[in-house]
Automatic annotation (TrEMBL):
<dbReference type="GO" id="GO:0005506">
    <property type="term" value="F:iron ion binding"/>
</dbReference>
<dbReference type="InterPro" id="IPR042244">
    <property type="entry name" value="HypD_2_sf"/>
</dbReference>
<dbReference type="GO" id="GO:0070025">
    <property type="term" value="F:carbon monoxide binding"/>
</dbReference>
<protein>
    <recommendedName>
        <fullName>Hydrogenase maturation factor</fullName>
    </recommendedName>
</protein>
<dbReference type="GO" id="GO:0051539">
    <property type="term" value="F:4 iron, 4 sulfur cluster binding"/>
</dbReference>
<keyword id="KW-0408">Iron</keyword>
<dbReference type="InterPro" id="IPR042243">
    <property type="entry name" value="HypD_1"/>
</dbReference>
<keyword id="KW-0479">Metal-binding</keyword>
<dbReference type="Pfam" id="PF01924">
    <property type="entry name" value="HypD"/>
</dbReference>
<dbReference type="GO" id="GO:0051604">
    <property type="term" value="P:protein maturation"/>
</dbReference>
<comment type="similarity">
    <text>Belongs to the HypD family.</text>
</comment>
<dbReference type="InterPro" id="IPR002780">
    <property type="entry name" value="Hyd_form_HypD"/>
</dbReference>
Length: 363
């Protein structure tokens, strides 16, 4: 049934909801659409929309960003990174560059790019210059990086990969004693690549209502209605509310590139810790282009707060859906977009940045 956003809201308001019903999304794009459209305020008060682990920039290991900064400063390279990585801070003394943006200001050759293809074009245009592509992202961003490797890249381009899978973080929450949500709205763009089947465990193993949504208000509200009705009728299933793009098994070509060029490994999430089988690493056949093997390891484990969130920052709790952005003690005071303390205030997919842009101010 294809309804408009207004019609879905009418349907939602007619549901006999009596208790609080918490729905988590795990997509920065979803959270941005929800906030910009004012969906929270339009929904029945019993429905609580919780932003979850949907921002790859927010969970990118602090050590990886530090490594990228040090490579750019100490090696004769050009470092390439997606634009929202440039201002993410690391934990160093005030005398050192604490972000890629500050390292660029100190003289390092760091260039923002919007896609992996740009990295390829730049490397080919300057064959005598060494390039390192710092690639952080979830499956939808990592798949093009894998395709780049499979299709062939020049020897002067290396990959510093910080790719993550989305579902293991949700699985970790559901395996905990306090998952903090009653239903899941899964990310349509990830399901487009990896297939909807990746989210079936939410229903089969944990008996929670689940739906896959796109980025429009009508798709998000359809998914919200679906999980609410599943709970009311006591029947759980994975509902595809984004059928225009999400197909069974996903994008087979993209998945083939991922499995050919990369392997799934245990991976660190900033402020959260290691989540089993939640990261991507270059396959041994592509080790030649692995920046972690080609260049020195610059991480210094003895650095104060190495690998952690900045002091006082609740980004990890925000990412896990344990706190709302405006419940962080730094939100809107010490931490604002022009002077971010934590990564959630930097990225356009970070819940803190989204809420601030949506006009939410400290309580």
């Amino acid at each position: 049934m294809s309804l408009s956003a207004k019609e879905w809201l009418t349907q939602l308001r007619q549901l006999p909801l009596s208790d609080r019903f918490r729905i988590m999304n795990v997509c920065g794009g979803h959270e941005r659409s929800i906030t910009q459209a004012g969906l929270r305020g339009a929904l029945p008060p019993q429905i609580e929309l919780i932003p979850g682990p949907g921002c790859p920039v927010c969970v990118c290991p602090e050590e990886d960003i530090y490594q990228a900064i040090q490579l750019a400063i100490n090696e004769e390279i050009t470092l390439l990174a997606f634009g929202d990585m440039l201002r993410v801070p690391v934990n160093v003394s005030k005398q050192e560059p604490r972000s890629l943006d500050q390292a660029h200001g100190a003289g390092a050759d760091i260039r923002p790019i919007a896609s992996p293809i740009e990295a390829l074009k730049l490397a080919k245009s300057e064959p005598n210059r060494a390039f390192v592509f710092f690639a952080a992202g979830f499956e939808t961003t990592t798949a093009p990086v894998a395709a780049l490797l499979v299709e062939g890249i020049p020897d002067n381009l290396s990959i510093l990969l910080s790719g993550r899978l989305t579902w293991p973080a949700v699985s970790m929450l559901l395996e905990s004693d306090t998952p903090g949500f009653d239903a899941l709205v899964a990310p349509g763009h990830v399901a487009t690549v990896m297939g909807p089947e990746e989210w079936q465990f939410v229903v089969d193993k944990h008996q929670l209502p689940a739906a896959i949504a796109g980025f429009t208000s009508d798709s998000l509200l359809a998914a919200t209605y679906s999980v609410c009705r599943q709970a009311l009728e006591d029947r759980r299933f994975l509902d595809n509310c984004y059928p225009e793009l999400v197909k069974p098994e996903g994008n087979l070509s993209a998945r083939a590139h991922l499995s050919t060029a990369l392997e799934v490994v245990d991976a660190n999430w900033r402020g959260i810790g290691t989540i089993p089988k939640s990261g991507f690493a270059l396959h041994a056949d592509y080790a030649k282009w692995d920046a972690r093997l080609r260049y020195p390891e610059y991480d210094e484990p003895d650095r104060k707060r190495a690998g952690k969130m900045p002091a006082g920052c609740d980004c990890a709790q925000v990412v896990l859906g344990k706190k709302y952005p405006n419940e962080c003690r730094l939100y809107g005071t010490a931490c604002v977009p022009r002077n971010p303390i934590g990564p959630c205030m930097v990225s356009d997919e970070g819940a803190c940045r989204i809420w601030w842009s949506g006009g939410v101010r400290p309580d």
